[in-house]
Structures are given as structure tokens and as C-alpha cells.
Amino acid sequence: MDYIKIFVTVALAVTGWIVVHYFTSRREVNNKRREISIKHLVDAYRVLTHDISHRKLSENRMIELENLISDIQLFGSVEQISLVKNLADDVASGGPFELDPLINSLRSDLRSQLKLMKVEDNVRWLRLGK
């Protein structure tokens, strides 16, 4: 009878350890996925707001914009992917393009993921001369 108690205790402990390990591993993978996604979207947001918007497009800025479009198509939401496809089409056609909808979507998504208050207004631009 004592062997059965010991066996049941060990079996419960091992089962508990396996279950805890499984859920901990899942949580760590989800957290890492979220961390990578947030990092890339924050970088995309910064490039859009600091380097691309309201500045002359140089070769370096065009390369940054190309990389940014790739990152958003990989890590962005369905809405952001649609917005960045429209942006890519507008830029490719040589016509004017609007960044505010994409920037606002990125900001809204990032603020939500970071559990910050929602902001409705457009980004306010300040560009200081030399």
C-alpha cells in the first residue's frame, strides 16, 4: 500500500511538472513572438514618423521605406498590411501618398498591445530647421 501512495505522489508530481512546463513554454513563446512583433512595429513607426514623413526621399530613405513595408507586411495587422499595400502602390505610381492612416494604425495597435490609453488624433509633426 505504501508503494502505491509513493507511486501516485510521484506520478502526480511528474504530471504537474509536465503541465506547468508545457504552459510556461507556450507563454514564453507567445511573449517572445509579441516582443519581436512590437519591436519591429515600433521601429517601423519611428522610421515613418522620423525619417520618411515630411522629408525629401533620398536613396537611404527609400531603402528604409522598402524595409519598413516588408516588416509591416510580416508583423502588422490585417488593416496595416492593407494600408501598406496601398502606400506601396501610391509610391510606385509616383503619386502623392498619405502616411497618417498607417501611422495612426501602428500607434493604435502598439498602444493597445502595451496597454496604454487609446489616442484618436493624428500625429502632430514638428520639424526644426538647421
Task: Set down the secondary structure blueprint.
Elements: H1 2-52, H2 59-75, H3 78-92, H4 100-113
List keywords for this structure.
mainly alpha; single chain; 75% helix; 0% strand; 4 helices; 130 residues
Q: How would you describe this protein?
A:
By secondary structure, this protein is mostly helical. The protein has a domain at 37-113. It has 4 helices and no strands. It is elongated.
Spans of 5+ residues with little confidence (pLDDT < 50)?
Answer: none
Count of alpha and pi helical runs: 4
Q: What Rg do the Cα atoms give?
A: 23 Å
* Helix content, binned percent: over 70%
Order of H and E elements: HHHH
Extended strand count: 0
- Through-space gap between termini: 86 Å
**Overall spatial form:** elongated
Secondary structure class reads: mainly alpha
Major β-sheet annotation: none
Q: Give the integer mean of the pLDDT values.
A: 86
Please indicate the percent range of residues in DSSP E strands (runs of 2 or more).
Answer: under 5%
